[in-house]
Design goal:
Elements lengths: L8 H10 L4 H13 L4 H8 L3 H13 L20 H11 L15 H12 L5 H10 L16 H10 L7
Helix pairs in contact: 1-2, 2-4, 3-4, 6-7
């Protein structure tokens, strides 16, 4: 248990009381469990992670001051290009069909979102970030179903008319 030798259970409980939720709280709870004698595999199962993650979490308490140990270091990256009320407004717009905003498409695509962000907010994003924005707005990406190049539309229609749909099971 060498990682937690310099920290008391009381200090961990005090730290836990200061953290509301999220990964930092999970890290403190794992440290409390380990301090009480729980095995690494038990902690990993309890917190839904692998043992290596538990070891990494516990190493933080040895390497950093107790107040900083549960938290991630700041990560590089610029501020959001669309923030605050504008971001809220963008997400509200994404809840509407694009046709209500004057576009010809029925559903949002990454390219349409990029176009809209540039026109409406003067902001350019990389296409991969558009998918993140759609997800953050609570939308999933829909794409057209591919159709085989030799598929006959008349045969498809005939098939659909002759096949009986299954009822509820």
């Amino acid at each position: 248990m060498g990682r937690l030798d310099d920290i008391t259970l009381e200090e961990l409980y005090d730290l836990k009381d200061q953290i509301d939720e999220g990964k930092p709280r999970e890290r403190v709870l794992a440290a409390i469990g380990r301090k009480k004698g729980d095995q690494l595999d038990t902690l990993a199962d309890r917190h839904g992670v692998v043992e290596k993650t538990i070891r990494n979490w516990l190493d933080r308490f040895k390497e950093e001051p107790i107040e900083q140990a549960p938290y991630d270091a700041p990560r590089p990256g610029g501020p959001a290009k669309i923030e605050g009320k504008d971001r809220e407004r963008l997400f509200e717009q994404l809840q509407q069909p694009p046709t209500e905003l004057g576009y010809d498409q029925q559903a949002w695509s990454a390219k349409l979102l990029l176009h809209h962000a540039k026109e409406e907010y003067g902001v350019e994003y990389h296409e991969t970030y558009a998918y993140d924005l759609l997800k953050e707005a609570g939308l999933s990406l829909r794409t057209a179903r591919p159709q085989h190049h030799e598929a006959d539309p008349e045969e498809k229609t005939e098939f659909q008319e002759t096949v009986e749909k299954n009822g509820p099971n």
